[in-house]
Amino acid sequence: MTSGVEIGALRVDLVPEVRYRLMPRAFLFPDLIHEDAARNADWIGPRHLHPETLAVGMAFQAYLIRARGQNILVDTCNGNHKPRPHAPWQDDMRAHTFLTSLADLGLRPEDIHIVLCTHLHTDHVGWNTRLVDGRWVPTFPNARYVMNKAEYDHFAALVGTEGSRYAHIEDSVLPVVDAGQAEMVSDTAEIISEIGEEVFLSPSPGHSPGHVCIHARANGAEAVISGDAIHHPIQLDMPDLVMRADGDAALAAQSRRAVMEHCAGTSALLCAGHIPDWSFARVHEGGRAFRLDPL
Ligand SMILES: [Zn+2]
């Protein structure tokens, strides 16, 4: 199981918050049937997909890109103390794993220069803020928080319309904006653009309206941090399998397939943080569509 890789002169490391949690099938894939699990049992074991219960193994993990002296954190998982009454698995978490994972990489919150958000769902923005004296304040005081403007505009307009469903925008996104640390960009923005060394966004809409993938590319090698474009290995075999929270299922499937085709066609590493153990993997054609080769 790999926890970090060199991409040319860049480095990409895993930042786990929850390394493994078994979720009921309906949490991810209401349409998944036993036949799908049986067909893939030779490469997807029971830890990732239980053949009888169809329970799915999930992780909640961010990535850290180190490039040109910049510490770039991609996504921030669930966060602590966040009131999530409709999601018991993330409600009022009190875990120290996320900041400990960063400390294991030699970094304090003050050392993060950039936070990149693949999208603004609750399990990807949690550690954007933390609770200090009853107020939500940016966890990373020296970081600029870079978000796709279309994604931000979509969710900011929904705050207050459906009660707690958008509470995570209020407690994990707006405080960063209020602190003057947010930077809204396009879905193709370049974060680092040097000859032979690039970090940039690419559009992968569907799961959410402005979802982006993050690419780290250097010296001919590449890693793609895919956010929620891909949740589980079964989607390599079934790219059209709808994930329950896909906002636009058809568009999400199109984006998911495009990410897999890109990785398979270029040998780019797929970094899918919700997949336990296989969080760095190569993609190749196989089965009904694709297969994963974990590093
Ligand atoms: Zn997610």
Account of the protein in words:
Helix content is 21%, strand content 32%. The protein contains 8 helices and 16 strands. The strands form 4 sheets. It has a 7-stranded mixed sheet with strand order 1-2-3-4-5-8-9. The protein starts with a strand and ends with a strand. A hairpin with a 2-residue loop joins strand 3 (56-67) and strand 4 (70-74). It has a single domain (4-294), classed as Metallo-beta-lactamase, Chain A (4-Layer Sandwich). The longest helix is centred in the C-terminal third of the chain and has 18 residues, at 249-266. The model has no long low-confidence stretch (mean pLDDT 96). By secondary structure, the chain is α/β, with parallel strands linked by helices. It binds zinc ion. The site of zinc ion has 5 residues, from loops.
Shape: globular
What's the pLDDT, averaged over the residues? 96
Number of strands: 16
CATH topology: Metallo-beta-lactamase, Chain A
Structural class: alpha/beta
Question: In what order do the strands lie side by side in the largest sheet?
Answer: 1-2-3-4-5-8-9
Count of spatially separate domains: 1
Number of DSSP helical runs: 8
Cα-atom radius of gyration: 18 Å
